Amino acid sequence: MKIFSYIIIAIAIGLIVFNITQVDFNQPFEGNSTIALIGIVSGFCAIVLTLVFRMSKIIEEKTKK
Prior knowledge:
This protein is an all-alpha fold. The chain has 2 helices and no strands. The longest helix is centred in the C-terminal third of the chain and has 33 residues, at 32-64.
């Protein structure tokens, strides 16, 4: 499960980097820039959810002992 979470985080970081290249910083809320901003936010959400899941698994393992 640990490797899977690392893979998910790596994919999310890759998507964030790709979407940053798609943003037009002169008009960030028009056209494809809006979609790229949504992709950036969703990538950060995926990272946070994965980290919360990993922390819950660590806590679960410690409480079972």
